[in-house]
Design a protein that fits this description.
Elements lengths: L1 H20 L7 H5 L14 H11 L2 H13 L3 H19 L5 E2 L2 E5 L2 E2 L5
Antiparallel strand pairs: 1-2, 2-3
């Protein structure tokens, strides 16, 4: 089952690349910004509960889709780009086995344990 889920996430990642090509943005912007959402891990400096909340907000695909949809509807390319990057990043994270975080530990995700705990 994990293989099927990872393949599905890989498809979402490839779809985000397709959406990116619709924007009039240089190609190098995609890899440059792809890991920017990981800055949300800084929330863990305030503890695991707040860290998980901040991390999960940034990695939630509903936020990504909302940003993209609003950006596309309102002709705001920066907002659409933000949505695509958030969506691509979250999908790539899930391909690698990283999921949304539980409040008890960074290593406890909705996809299982990561790191040494795995």
């Amino acid at each position: 089952m994990k293989t099927i889920l990872r393949l599905e996430e890989a498809g979402f990642f490839l779809f985000s690349i397709c959406l990116f090509t619709l924007l009039e943005v240089p190609w190098w912007v995609f890899p440059l910004l792809l890991f920017a959402p990981d800055v949300s891990m800084l929330g863990y400096l305030a503890g695991p509960r707040l860290g998980a909340a901040v991390y999960n907000l940034v990695h939630h695909r509903t936020l990504a889709l909302a940003c993209y949809a609003l950006g596309a509807a309102l002709a705001l390319p920066a907002l659409a780009l933000t949505g695509i990057i958030l969506f691509a990043h979250s999908s790539l994270d899930r391909v690698m086995g990283y999921g949304l975080k539980h409040a008890d530990s960074f290593n406890h995700t909705h996809l299982g344990s990561i790191g040494r705990a795995a």
